[in-house]
Amino acid sequence: MSDEKQQVSRRQFLNYTLTGVGGFMAAGLLISPIRMAIDPVLKESSAGDMANVGLSVDDITAEPQRIDWTIDQVDGWYESEVNRAAWVYRNENDEIVAFSPVCKHLGCVVSWEGSDQHPNEYFCPCHDGRYYKDGTNVPGTPPLAPLDEYEQEVRDGMLFLGEPKPRGEA
Amino acid sequence: MLQKIYDWIDDRIDITPIWRDIADHEVPEHVNPAHHFSAFVYCFGGLTFFVVVIQILSGMFLTMYYVPDIENAWKSVYYLQTEVAHGQIVRGMHHWGASVVIVMLLLHTLRVFFQGAYKKPRELNWMVGVLIFFVMLGLGFTGYLLPWDNKAYFATQVGLEIAEQVPFIGQELKTLLAGDATIVGAQTLTRFFAIHVFFLPGALFALLAIHFILIRRQGISGPL
């Protein structure tokens, strides 16, 4: 090997060329399948449609009430109606609040005053998770975050709900 | 970095002889297109294998979206074609590749036939090759039904009627393929799907392994 410059040996050159061409072919082969496989991650979510939950704002009181409604869900090639539920009440500032009933611990369904021992709280029967009326988790119980809040809107005196969002994002 | 990882593994389990055995072998002058350009005919076997690899890869990815069910098969294919990015390309690879495999396979067969490369001691490998050909045709036939469109449905009906013409066991053979004596439907589709993605590929891998081991054992046939 000469002193002034590093020579590339015939073997090295062939190795680089073959690896390069092979890599190029493999990449060309795999790029479409991989793009197709990761499509769900890159797809823009079609969510954001507000649904009329069939509740007049005049009927919302300081006492949380459970409401059930259905939304049209498009899941790939499959369209169906799925059930949604929320606990809705009017807080002390006269604002409407709609909580998702899904427990922030492991995803069971919470109920308002679901346990006789814990009045004035949301209660999750799975692991005795509890939340105060404003959705904040009771310290020392399994949940580590407050209940999610639905995006909401009032149109013509009716309540419309969107997607449940963690507190502070709704 | 890569060299270090390789050395670390090689140090412990001595993998160099393993891959040397697989990758390092003489390419005789008469099969090297750099010496005689006409030697490109020796590429058809390798090209067949290359397209088979494309088929396996694209097929694996297609099953992420496809459902073998008469209610949803066509819808899922339509969704894949129209809504999923690059879905059209991947299905295109599988669709066109299926034909290219058959073309390459025939060219490979013709080369072996006209060079007399199938003669003693390589008769066994010719037989294995013929079995691979049948498996490929089976893959093509079963895959044709899966999109569950009109062409797929009626082509399969014709195919099943051909199977019915087999003497003595025709009726049973047809029922076995279709999953029902008269209906081409839900059970036919699941059966064809299972055959297409599990049974035939399994048979194909085994046969390809034998095919390749035999080539390495016997070497490439000599010059004409």
UniProtKB/TrEMBL annotation, chain A:
Entry-linked Pfam families: Rieske
Presence of the UniProt keyword Electron transport in the record: yes
Molecular function GO terms recorded: 2 iron, 2 sulfur cluster binding; metal ion binding; monooxygenase activity; oxidoreductase activity, acting on paired donors, with incorporation or reduction of molecular oxygen
Known function: Component of the menaquinol:cytochrome c reductase complex. The Rieske protein is a high potential 2Fe-2S protein.
Keywords associated with the record: 2Fe-2S, Disulfide bond, Electron transport, Iron, Iron-sulfur, Membrane, Metal-binding, Oxidoreductase, Transmembrane, Transmembrane helix, Transport
Protein name (record): Menaquinol:cytochrome c reductase iron-sulfur subunit
Native source organism of the sequence: Oceanobacillus profundus
Domain Rieske: 88-161
Protein family: Belongs to the Rieske iron-sulfur protein family.
InterPro entries linked to this entry: Rieske_2Fe-2S, Rieske_2Fe-2S_sf, Rieske_Fe-S_prot, TAT_signal
Residues passing through the membrane, by range: 12-31
Oligomer and partners: The main subunits of the menaquinol:cytochrome c complex are a Rieske-type iron-sulfur protein (QcrA), a cytochrome b (QcrB) and a cytochrome c (QcrC).
Annotated SUPFAM superfamilies: ISP domain
UniProtKB/TrEMBL annotation, chain B:
GO biological process terms, semicolon-separated: respiratory electron transport chain
Superkingdom field: Bacteria
TM segment ranges: 39-67, 96-114, 126-146, 193-215
Record-linked PROSITE patterns: CYTB_NTER
One GO CC annotation: plasma membrane
Amino-acid biosynthesis is among the record's keywords: no
Cofactor(s) needed by this chain: heme b; heme c
Oligomer and partners: The main subunits of the menaquinol:cytochrome c complex are a Rieske-type iron-sulfur protein (QcrA), a cytochrome b (QcrB) and a cytochrome c (QcrC).
Role, per record: Component of the menaquinol:cytochrome c reductase complex.
Protein name according to UniProt: Menaquinol:cytochrome c reductase cytochrome b subunit
